[in-house]
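Protein 1 of 2
SEQ + STRUCT:
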Amino acid sequence: MSSSRRRLSRRSSSFPPTSATLRKRLVALDQRRAFLYAEMADIRTQLAEVAQSRAELVAQLAQLTYPILTLPTELTSIIFEFYADMMNDAYSSFKGGPFVLGQVCRRWRDIALESSKLWRNVRVETGACEGKEQLLDLWFRRASKTLLRVQLSTEDPSLYALVAGHAEKFEAITCDLPPPNDCTLASIAGRVPNLRRLDLYLAEIHTPLTVFADAPALRELNVHFAPFGSLEQLVLPWTDLTSASFDKEVPNLLHIVSRMPNLETLKLPAAKYILPPKIIELPNLTTLHCSTRNSQLAGPFNLKFLSHLQCPAIEVLEVHFRSTKHVPALRNFIQSTPLNALRDVTLSQLSGYDVVQLLSAPAATAVERLVVYEMSDQSAFFYALAGVGSAEPGPPLLPALETLIVESPPLELTSSAILAMLDARCNDSALLNVNHNNTGSGPIKALTPDPDPEDECEVSEVAPNPSPVKHPRPALLREFELKPGLVLPYRDEVLPQAVFAHHVQSVIGPRGCRVDVLAPRLARIESDVGAGTQTEPTLYSLAEQDDGDLSY
């Protein structure tokens, strides 16, 4: 019975639909279409309203002028020039400042194309760039008559030849000497009247190089030595140079320095050189950098050559030590400088006691800025600045000091010493008692060197001095920065940062000194081992906001 019903159902479903069924379906589709047409009409109305609102906004925006576009063209050009100079090394050849600025907007593009100084930095490198000759020629044409700063780092002889064609406009050039194979700079000899700066990557030279011998405007020389690089065969207008920098020690370097009597700035490695028979007089030298810091080519550290330099006009001195056994050589050099000569001193890898001994010389009494890297036994230095620890009353240490930066020391952070220094050097009333606070009835602390040079200074007690001698008050400290690099656990006597910040705020008050203290945030975990863990360093400031740049 059930099987017969299934057969009947299959037969009936195979019949075509009737006309009534089709009409019903057609009516349903017409109703659906009418509904959609109604929705489309409503959407068109909404789209028209949106289009009208958008057109109104576009018209309003067209009437607005962005603040950056209100600047005069001359001022915008100056800003662009600073950007192009600053970012010159951030881009590869022919992709520098002018092209970046020209992609921002039409007005910036017009300014970039019209400002010839934006095109003065010419960087030519080896790379797969099509049409380099055409791009370089375009670059020179955009620069017009502006003096050029050229960086040559290519082995393409055709590019060397194209660059050499504009030698009369060279203001600065960076290149290899001798040039790479098949490349030459011989054609620019005698054609660089405007060249003021020369950066050389110097390799081994066997014959005299006179390419830059006739450069009447040359004043600055920076030499980067390749292995076996030498200076003997390099011919330059040595007596005209006012600034020289050498990144690697060569035995006869002092002999070369003796040819430059008009130097104002000298940077050379602190190394062992062949000492000249006579003292080298540098009457105009104001800045001296002696360092092997961050140099992969550095040899043994040595400062004995300082005894053969006479620098009566020295103002800025920077020495990065590798061994404290050469402290006496630097002390003798500082003591040989005229009274009140030094203004800016940078030292590294010394103890606080060594820094005090170096800067106690009369020549350091005019130092206004001091930067010390990786200083151990900081308390000795801070107490000395505070006027605490002198066995006999004397003139204050660094009385003209206004800026003090202590960076990357082993983190001892003896808060009491820092507070004493800030109280003495940032407080008008405290300055009256600097180096006279040993007139009481009790003993005071004095810093004495330990016989073992490996140990830090120790604190001893001396008898009070009943008859103090008055000395001129030191200047108010205007800026103090402490930036520990190596994060170590705190000692028991060190105050927590929050307490330390509160103490500094109460000690200094509104006295015009900016204090930045970069200290690690220490989180201690109670465990069976009792180990302490540390998080990343955080900047503790002395106000409600933690911005690290505060002024009182």
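Protein 2 of 2
SEQ + STRUCT:
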Amino acid sequence: MTEPGPDGTTSDDPNPVEADGAAPPVGGDRWPQPESPGPGPDDSGEYVTAPAPAPAPAPAPAPGAEAADAGSGADPGDPAGVVGSAVAEGAEPVPSGPVHSDHPHVSYVLRVNGVDRPVDEAWIGESLLYVLRERLGLAGAKDGCSQGECGACSVQVDGRLVASCLVPAATAAGSEVRTVEGLAGDGAPSDVQRALADCGAVQCGFCVPGLAMAVHDLLEGNHAPTELETRQAICGNLCRCSGYRGVLDAVDSVVSDRATHASAQEEQHGGGEA
């Protein structure tokens, strides 16, 4: 009787040869298969996995060992017994280093619009804009970008125009800070503020405080600027409503009004002397 070979074909050779060329032992037609080290299949043909052996029980401690450990004050987290021995000997604990706050606070005084304004327990990283608005209640300067790009937060520090959102408030202590609220006295708008309104340089009004500060800063150093000089002075102030034509007209109006007023003053003083 012939049996199919490994490739499914039959052979009449009484001594079949395996694929590697070796013949099976005499008296058999196949090589004996190695026994599986694990358990064999059950009646259903499925292999059954033997359960894992149970862990060996931990050895019981010697009599009196627990009492000795309790009396020695040993710490499981301190196998060397360093801490336990130090405590047992009454040694002073090692002092920890100083605690540094991630947000240190400082107190200082800002001189704003001629008045000393104390600032107590403020985070050292607060900007001048934040302190003016949130701590001192001067909301004229606006937070338009927090990056010094829009000019809405412009104020003067010691006579110099700055973006208050970029100035740490603590560094302005001891300096003279001037905001848009300090441009005019007695609660009346300044001539620059009136001109901005009269010339239509105002729509939403968000940029106007910064523009007013920029124009005041310009006219303090240049009493009769050209249009180009005015454009250069306000180039750091962004306006997305009315544009800049009204601002240029307002500057011309202020320059003209101030010149007229100065001439009238000169004539008045000259006539009195005559």
